[in-house]
Every structure is written in C-alpha cells, then in structure tokens.
Amino acid sequence: MNKKLFIILLFFLLLILVPFFYQTSFSKYTFDYSLNAAKILIDKKPEIHVLSVSNTNEGYETYANKTHQITLAIKIIEKNIMINHFNRDYIQILVGEQSVSPIIDIQQISKHDDELLYSLSISNLTGNGKLSITFPEGIIQDNRGQKNSFLKFNTNIIIDNISPQTSGEEISVENNQSQYLIHSNEPIRPIDDWEMPSTTSLSKVFSSPIYYPIPIIDYAGNVTQTFIDIKKARNIMLYYANYNGYTISKFDSNGEISGKQAIIDATNYKSEMLVTYLDGNIDKNALQVRAFDYTYWGENTTALCDYSEIKYQYGYSPSASSWYDMSSNNVVRFLGKLSLQLGGQGHNATGNSCMGIHKPIPQEIASQNLYGLSGIAFKLKDFDTYSIIYQIYVPNVGWLKAASDGEETTYSHDKPFSAIRINIVPSSEKQYILKYWNTFIGTHSIH
C-alpha cells in the first residue's frame, strides 16, 4: 500500500476513536443518576352517593302516593368532615318540578374512617309527578374547605295522588247472564276473579241482579269506589215475600228490602211469615232455610197459618240442626208460585189461638205486635262459587250485621224482625256486598 495513503487512513481512524477513548478514559468525574418517586396524596372533594331506593308500595314500587314511605340508603365519602348539613333543612324534595314539604326522617346507620351511611325516609308526599331529591353544593365540607358537588337524584318513582276516573256498563250475554265492564282513565290493579282485557279495564260475568260498590285501585294505591249495577241478568233468581201486617202484592228479589213499608212508617209490626223460592238455571232445592219462631203460646205449642194452614211452632223450624227446602212439607202456592214457607200469618191476630190449647191472644197483647220470626239462616247446597247473604231489620234496634252461608242472624229470640233482604252473590264478591250492606243501608243504623 502507498505509504502516504496509509497515513491518511490512520489519521481518519484516530479522529473517530479519540472521542470514545477520551470519554471513558480521561474524564475526571463520573456521574450516577437515580430517580426517587414521591408519594403525592390527593385530597378529593366530599362525595354523596345514593346506594338504593325502596318503596312501601309493594308490587308497584315505581309508584307511590302520600300513604307510602320512600327510603333511600345514602353514603357520604369524606374522612375529614368539618361541616355536615345533611339534614331536612338543606335537602330539597321535588315532585315534578315543584318543591314539596313531606315528612323527612334521617337516621345515621354507620360511620367508618371515610364513610357515613344514612337512611333517608320520606312520607306524606303531595303533588303529582316524578320524585327527585337535590343535595345542594356545600352541605358537606372538609377541613380544607372543599365542598360536595350539587347532586339531583331521580328516584324513578312517580308520585300520584289522583284517584282513577272510572265508568261501567252492563252488556247482556247468552244464557241470561250479564257482563259488566269497568273502564279507567289510567292503569289499575287486578281484582281477584275479574278478567283484565287491558291494563285500564276489568270484566266479570254475573248471573243475578246485584248492586254494590267495588274499590278500583291504581298503581299508586289511590282508590275509587265504582258501583256494580246488574239489572238484566236472570240466570239465577231468588224471590221472597215477607208478611208483617201489610198486604203483599208481589215478590221482592235479589237484595231488595221486603217489608220496607214497616220501616218507613216506623211501626211495631213484626214478620210473621216468609215465603221464598228459586228460579232460573239452578236446582230449586239448592236453597235451604231454618228460622226461630217466637210465639205468644210458648214452648211445645203449634199454630196454623191463617193463609195456608201450614203449621208453625215456637222455636226452631224445622230444628236447630236441620233445614227446609222445596222438598219439605211446608211448600205452598203463594201469588201463583210454589214457595217455601217459614212461620205463618196470625202470630199477632186478636183472639187467635194455638192448636190443642184454647189460649186466645188478648187485644192489648195483639196490638203490641210482639211475636213473629226472630232468627233466620239460609244456605246453598252444593255451591262453592255462590254465596247467599241476608240481613234483618229489628224495630227500635235497626239493621243487624249482615250474615251469610248458614249463619243465624238474630238480635235476640224474643225480638222478631220486621224487614229482610236476601241475595245470591258470587263468592268472590261477598266481602264487598257484606261491607256495603253493613255500612250503607239507607234506613237507620247497623247493630
């Protein structure tokens, strides 16, 4: 190789290697760098969290009215609380966009290092609309002056204090039955043994005339009383006539008051004889009856009915444990109809006497009308879907509590009644009708 070229290559090689050689070999100091991570504590603002919402309106928890209680579980996260205004004076309750003033109860449930757990209960909520709760900024402050943020919490509960508006109509169906339809302006709750064609309607088929109120309840629990008024149904008919001194020209039926005139005139007349029968799509022997007959002549005596000459006797007829039906020997033809008779006309007739003993009723006793039927019971044989209810009126006492399905109704056996009403009703509706008869009868009071 040319000597001159060799020297040039060596020179360039030295230029390249010298910096590295100098850096590693001729530096006076060597520096060792290291990084230490500092622990930085960030103090967060106080926080308010709604953990859960409950409602005493069971089954319809997304609706409520003033009768229900809404309870929220609320957690506050902050260790160093300086100011705590978590109380009823600072929390705002909104129904719709309106601020309301319900009953508020706040209870502290637990306290840990950096958590407070509260129960917030709200009741007597007025107004109508969605329920929300606002927690203003600054009701919780820590020792650094940091405040909680404003929070508006939507409970997803609708407050409804307006009762549903309803209407009803009777529609005749086949076999002399009637369908009753109830319509509502808002969704309503189901009723046992009623069909629901939609969330805003109810439907039921009836076999007999009947009149009574039924509670219609919306999802929030508001109630409207709607009267069921069945007039066209004739599938099952119960007829009865009560003789109490007034002339009888017709049978009453299905809940009508028989003997009403004695109540209107405020007389002391008593029921001496009751006749009754079934008609329609029902076994005529399904109706069973027994009564207590209080007579002037006393125990172990028998008398004859002035109208039919059917025998009636002091005490239970037929007995305290047996029943009359249309197969019994006390069936008579009354107003052209074969009917079952209890008691007999002539209990309070002047000069009337019992069989076998000459003991005529004196005028002064007869005028007081002290004698007649004083206790009575009805039941239906082999029927589960229907009940029979009945109620008697005792002069100077009033209407007694309505009875049903074999229970005896009596004020006392020496206090005969003067008026009666009876009806065959669907068993599912019995509770409503008994309540109606016992609270609103239009004449005097219930005892």
Characterise the protein shown here.
With 447 residues, this protein is mainly β. 9% of the residues lie in helices and 42% in strands. The protein contains four helices and 32 strands. The strands form nine sheets. Strands 2-11-9-5-6 form a five-stranded mixed beta sheet, with no helix packed on it. A five-stranded antiparallel beta sheet has the order 19-18-20-26-25, with no helix packed on it. It has a four-stranded antiparallel beta sheet with strand order 1-3-8-7, with no helix packed on it. The termini are far apart.
Mean pLDDT: 91
Enumerate the spans where pLDDT stays under 50 for 5 or more consecutive residues. 17-41, 443-447
Helical content stands at under 10%
Largest pleated sheet: 5 strands, mixed
- The portion of residues forming beta strands comes to 35-45%
Q: Please identify the structural class as seen in this structure.
A: mainly beta
Number of helices: 4
Shape designation: elongated
Rg over alpha carbons: 44 Å
Quantity of strands, as a count: 32
Overall domain count? 3
Q: Span between N and C termini?
A: 142 Å
Strand order of the largest sheet: 2-11-9-5-6
Walk me through the topology.
Layout: H1 3-25, E1 47-55, E2 63-64, E3 69-77, E4 81-84, E5 92-95, E6 98-100, E7 103-111, E8 115-123, E9 129-135, E10 140-142, E11 151-159, E12 166-173, E13 177-184, E14 195-198, E15 201-206, E16 210-217, E17 223-230, E18 236-243, E19 252-253, H2 260-264, E20 273-280, E21 287-294, E22 302-304, E23 311-313, E24 315-317, E25 331-334, E26 337-343, H3 363-366, E27 372-380, E28 386-394, E29 398-399, E30 403-404, E31 409-410, E32 419-426, H4 430-439
Parallel strand pairs: 2-11
Antiparallel strand pairs: 1-3, 3-8, 4-10, 5-6, 5-9, 7-8, 9-11, 12-13, 13-15, 14-15, 16-17, 18-19, 18-20, 20-26, 21-24, 21-27, 22-23, 25-26, 27-31, 28-29, 28-30, 28-32
